[in-house]
Design a protein that fits this description.
- The longest helix has 32 residues, at 2-33.
- The radius of gyration is 22 Å and the shape is elongated.
- The chain is α+β, with helices and mostly antiparallel strands and 150 residues long.
- It starts with a helix and ends with a strand.
- It has helices spanning 2-33, 36-44, 93-105; strands spanning 53-59, 68-75, 121-127, 130-137, 142-149.
- It contains 3 helices and 5 strands; from the N terminus they run H-H-E-E-H-E-E-E.
- The protein folds into 2 domains: 1-34; 47-149, no CATH class.
Length: 150
């Protein structure tokens, strides 16, 4: 009788571990695959720096094709990274206006918006009718990604 109790206890422990491990594993994998940085990388085919930390995010509900607006702010110390070497350095009022319109649609507060009064670097990527604006403000050590997929 003792052997059967041991067997039942062993099976119960294995089942409990599996029942706990599968949802935890799916949760961790889902958070990695569906985080904002990964979505930008997959959608726009580029790699973000690894030393970024997400600070703020806003988006519209997206349909099954991924259409909509997405805005994410990352903390980023540019420490000589190649990532921003191709960015433009001159202020661009058109980019500022387009980004501000998207942020207004997302109801982003001024404290979470890029400080266009500071010097900033920027890049605009266009694919079909879709747009990605990337703004880096060194004074704040923030990287702003603004996406409009139509």
């Amino acid at each position: 009788m003792r052997k059967s109790k041991k067997k039942i206890l062993t099976i119960a422990i294995i089942v409990a571990v599996v029942v706990i491990a599968i949802p935890v594993g799916l949760y961790v994998a889902g958070n990695y695959y569906f985080n904002d940085a990964h979505i930008y990388e997959e959608t726009w085919d580029f790699n973000l720096p690894r030393n970024i930390k997400e600070e703020y995010s806003a988006k519209t509900p997206q349909d099954f094709r991924g259409e909509g607006l997405r805005y994410t702010v990352f903390h980023y110390e540019a420490d000589g990274s190649d990532f921003i070497k191709t960015f433009e350095s001159e202020k661009n009022e058109q980019i500022e206006t387009e980004i501000s319109a998207i942020l207004a649609d997302l109801s982003v507060s001024e404290e979470n918006a890029p400080a266009f009064s500071e010097n900033y670097l920027w890049k605009h990527i266009e694919k079909y009718d879709d747009h990605l604006y990337i703004v880096y403000v060194a004074a704040d050590a923030k990287l702003y990604l603004v996406q409009n997929i139509m």
